[in-house]
Design brief:
Elements lengths: L2 H16 L23 E7 L2 E7 L5 H4 L3 E8 L7 E9 L6 E5 L8 E8 L2 E2 L3 E4 L11 E6 L10 H8 L4 E4 L28 H12 L2 H9 L2 E3 L19 H18 L23 E5 L3 E5 L21 E3 L16 H16 L6 E5 L13 E3 L7 H14 L4 E5 L4 E8 L9 E7 L11 H10 L3 E6 L3 E7 L3 E9 L9 E10 L2 E6 L4
Parallel strand pairs: 9-10, 10-11, 13-15, 15-17, 17-19
Antiparallel strand pairs: 1-2, 2-5, 3-4, 3-6, 6-7, 6-8, 9-21, 12-13, 14-16, 18-19, 18-20, 21-22, 22-23, 23-24
Helix pairs in contact: 1-4, 3-5, 4-6, 7-8
């Protein structure tokens, strides 16, 4: 299939998807087919007390249109029918940025819901719903956060997003692997669906990959439900890459990484501040995705980046396609105190944030460290160590644990993804020492659709070998839902009955509670 044929396929898929499975409050503005320029949907992100980022990306069929800039109109209203418009304006969709649009709103009221839409000519987008964060001094009664990661197209349908949208969260935290760079495997017998895109290495490849994923109606509905805060992991670029290093020669990899990072910015509701430079600057050698979001005094979310600044995986050959695992006793590099998963600057930034959370007694009720993977150690009976996770960076993990212990925020909760398994853990000062104090709670969510690659028997063996692990389940796709109040945090783990079906039902796997001032999750027996 040629590049032009791939683009036609993606446009048709997006146009067809845009006509179905939209939230009920979007029905007032159905898209016009087959020439809908908003066929990739709408999104919002990074809510602040006075505003939020609005996003869309145009789908243009005519080659002349694809080479031109376009003026997109936008409106924000109190109601879904736009009888009470609050703000409106125009934004330019540039071909150099994939005709993406990022509108940063200011001047909105704190702690309330809004509706938004985009217009180009006579075309009107789906209506999205978003909200602002509470005022800085407020202590809201409740916050519902959904957290999710890992949505490989071929491994399953996106039914999880449909159920997540129905749960009506206030905020979605997406923790990495929004796309996968792979081509469809040759053996398609056990896949839910396929695509015709090649292994992504160029800007056009990555743009096409995002268009493919965003053509899914369930994902579009989830984006239109509430604001998101997104970070990345490895598959937005290349499997198991680390900092400036990946497969192939260094110069070629950096070009590929820059293309992938540009496509990530183009397709996510990110603020221009993440560029750390003028938007017109064409360099893509850095993109700051670690940042903080405050939800009044109820929650302070520290959203991390564990890819851009990490050290190369310990004892991994430079030409290896993946990091894999090593025997702990045979890899002296693991113990090097200079090695870091977050990088020195981000470690210091996080330390300062945790110090701020604890500075004024009771100022922040819940300190949330949202990052890519499982933080708690997994000591395997075989003695192997996974080098791509926090287990491969024990000195960096120890520094973060020391930071939590030293500053002692009122309540610390870590969220993660990546491993395609559900884990619930007590985060102890020293997981290998009996009676070590519990410093925090951890919930590592499973994947939206990606397979786990292991068996429950192996996961059970790990749990038996690690007493700080309270729950470990594999090969169940889904998401996590955190209901946060001033007095308690409740995590509900939702899993699909059949990820191979787009209409799969979902159920609750387990529910855990963390009580204010008492670190460590407790199983809710009623779940």
């Amino acid at each position: 299939m040629t590049q032009d044929q791939r683009r036609i396929f993606l446009r048709r898929a997006a146009w067809a998807a845009a006509a179905t499975a939209l939230p009920r409050w979007a029905w007032s503005n159905p898209p016009s087919l087959p020439s809908n320029p908003f066929a990739l949907g709408v999104a919002s992100g990074d809510p602040a007390p006075d505003g939020v980022v609005l996003w869309t990306r145009l789908v243009l069929a005519d080659p002349a249109q694809m080479q031109a800039a376009h003026t997109v109109r936008w409106e924000v209203a109190h109601d879904a029918r736009f009888a009470q418009i609050v703000q409106k304006g125009e934004a330019t969709a540039l071909p150099a940025l994939g005709h993406s649009v990022h509108v940063e709103l200011h001047g909105l009221a704190p702690g309330r819901w809004y509706h938004y839409r985009f217009m180009l000519g006579d075309a009107v987008s789906t209506v999205g719903r978003t909200r602002t964060a509470p005022a800085p001094g407020d202590l809201p009664d409740a916050l519902r956060v959904a957290f999710a990661s890992c949505q490989r197209w071929e491994h399953g349908h996106y039914a999880a997003w449909r159920h997540l949208a129905a749960d009506q969260p206030d905020l979605v935290l997406f923790l990495g692997d929004y796309i996968y760079e792979y081509a469809t495997p040759k053996n398609t017998a056990d896949l839910a669906r396929t695509h015709s895109l090649r292994l992504a290495t160029t800007l056009a490849d990555y743009r096409d990959r995002y268009a493919l994923h965003k053509s899914d109606p369930a994902l579009q509905a989830a984006h239109a439900t509430c604001p998101w805060a997104v970070t990345w992991d490895d598959h937005e670029v290349q499997n198991d890459y680390a900092g400036a290093s990946g497969r192939g020669d260094a110069a070629s990899f950096l070009v590929q990484r820059g293309a992938a990072w540009q496509a990530f910015y183009e397709n996510m509701p990110l603020r221009a501040a993440s560029l750390n430079r003028p938007v017109a600057d064409t360099r893509w050698d850095a993109l700051q995705v670690y940042r903080r979001l405050r939800w009044g005094r109820l929650a302070h979310i520290h959203l991390l980046d564990s890819r851009q600044y990490r050290s190369w995986q310990a004892c991994r050959p430079t030409d290896s396609a993946s990091s894999g695992a090593v025997r702990g006793g045979s890899c002296a590099e693991l113990a090097d105190p200079a090695r870091s998963l977050l990088g020195t600057a981000q470690e210091q930034w996080l330390d300062a944030g945790l110090a701020t959370d604890a500075a004024a007694q009771g100022a922040t009720r819940w300190s949330v460290v949202a990052q890519q993977t499982l933080f708690s150690p997994r000591h395997y009976p075989s003695g192997t160590v996974s080098t791509d996770s926090w287990d491969g960076y024990p000195a960096g993990r120890a520094r973060l644990l020391q930071s939590v212990a030293r500053h002692a925020p009122r309540n610390t909760v870590l969220l993660g993804g990546d491993i395609h398994q559900n884990y619930v853990c007590e985060v102890r000062a020293d997981a290998q020492r009996a009676g070590s104090p519990v410093l925090a709670s951890e919930f590592c969510g499973t994947s939206i659709s990606s397979r786990s690659g292991t068996t429950q028997d192996k996961v059970d063996a790990v749990a038996r070998h690690n007493p700080h692990v309270l729950l470990a389940r594999c090969d169940q796709r889904g998401y996590g839902l955190a209901d946060i109040t001033p007095r308690r945090w409740t995590t509900t783990l939702r899993v699909l009955d059949d990820p191979m079906r787009a209409d799969s039902s979902a159920r609750t796997l387990a529910r855990f509670v963390v009580h204010d001032g008492r670190p460590g999750p407790v199983l809710d027996a009623s779940s």
